Amino acid sequence: MSWLWGLLGLALGAAIGLLIRRGRDVERLAEAEREAKALLAQADEKAAAVRERTLEEARAQIREDRARAEAALAREREASRADLARERDEMERELERARTQAQQAREEMARDREDLRREREKVDVVEERLTRRGEQQDARALRLDEQEERLDAREAEWRRRDDELADREADVDRRLHEVAGMDRQQAERIVLDRVEQELEREKSVRVRASVERADAEAKRRSQAILAQAIQRSASEVSAAIAVTVVPIPSDAMKGRIIGREGRNIRAFEALTGVDLIIDDTPEAVLLSSFNPLRREVARLALGELIEDGRIHPARIEEVVQKAQADMQTYIRERGEEATLEANVVGVKPGLLQLLGRMHFRTSYGQNILQHSVQVAHMSGIIAAELGIDEAMARRAGLLHDIGKSIDREIEGTHTEIGAGLGRRFGEPDEVIDAIANHHDLDRSETLFPVLVNAADAVSAARPGARRESLEVYLKRLEGLENIASSFPGVEKSYAIQAGREIRIIVEPDEIDDARAVLLARDIASRIEQDMEYPGQVQVTVVRETRAVQYAR
């Protein structure tokens, strides 16, 4: 029984232990249930928060999508409105163009109607005129028929008279042969000789008239060409004299220039060949020489001595040698500038040096180098007008006075010296011919001497180009006025424009308009015969009538 009680005790202990464990499991289960409920509550809260957050985000997204949709819709509406406005403007412009075209079409139709109306009126006028002309033609046809009948009658009468005249002519010829004792051939020969003599006289008269017309036309054409050459050429005119004034800083410099016992001035004059004049002129000394090259060298040397301040014979010799070397360079540069200005190429260095020397030569106060450049320009212009080699004419014009660069150093005329220089430097035959014969056209072999002669005369005859004495100038003016006043009917005469125009006032009662033209021609012819003058003289005859009354 003990074992039973043991078993019962074990069973009871097991049951009690089981109950104790079950109670603990119940407590743990309750605790777990409470924890689960708490977790479920937390999960519900979190789910509610997530749901609320999700709903809020969904609402924001919806609001944002709605705003974007509204903005897109607004943009679409604005674009639609703009497109609609553009289409409306385009339609309005199209409508305006259509209206304008329609208006233009209406105006053109109105003009066409007006033109058609005028044409219709013209056609009516023409039709009426043609109708009248047809009537006139009919009347004229009737008159022509009558005149034709009369002409037929006259023609018959003329034929009859021609027959009578032929018979009389034959009778006269027979009687003439009997009286003159000549046959028909002899009489015809005499008549033909007389006719031939008359034709010879007529031919000579016509030839003389043709020559006069040709001379007049050549003169007119040449004057036009020369006038065009003068208008297209412009050059400055400078006059050189035999004395050069050199300024000095003070009068004390004059004593230094003279030197002790005049040794400085003697050395300077001996080295330069120029007279140094020191007088009472304040702050200036004078260089006197007819050789412009020497005078220019002396001017350069004296200027450098004055600037340097060291003036003694050795220094003077050094400075003069330097000035002479500089002068050679200066001369060559002037020659090169002249060829460039005259548009002449291929001139040899020796000729360039001679051209540069002409810068210091004058003729009647006119600078020879500038004169040569001007002659080159005008020769080229005249040659171009006449269809001659322009480049050759320019070259001939530039070198035509090249002999004047050394004509004071060797014997001979400047044309002979220039022609020799041209041959020496290998210039073309045309240029040599122009140099040698531009003053003697009868010996010329080409046309270039004639061109150069004309251009040379134009350049020299320009107002102010060449100096002349006051006595000669006044004598020419007085001669012009005396010639004009010697004609009857001249009231007053005035020589103006440096003697290049004579203006004549005539008595209107004695000289009419036609005689005024003849008077101008006669005075011009008289001036050409009796006077010598550069260029040309314009003769202007003024005839004026005035009627004066006084109202009282």
Rg over CA atoms, rounded to whole Å, is: 60 Å
Shape verdict: flat
What is the CATH architecture descriptor of the domain at 243-461?
Answer: Orthogonal Bundle
Sequence of secondary-structure elements? HHEHHEEHHHEEHHHHHHEEHE
The average pLDDT is 78
Kindly name the structural category. mainly alpha
Helix fraction? over 70%
Query: How many E-type strands?
Result: 8
Query: What is the CATH third-level topology name of the domain at 243-461?
Result: Hypothetical protein af1432
Task: Give structural notes.
The protein has 14 helices and eight strands. The protein is mainly alpha-helical and 552 residues long. Among the domains are: 243-461, Hypothetical protein af1432 (Orthogonal Bundle), CATH 1.10.3210; 470-542, K homology (KH) domain (GMP Synthetase, Chain A, domain 3). The protein has a three-stranded antiparallel β-sheet with strand order 1-3-2. The radius of gyration is 60 Å and the shape is flat.
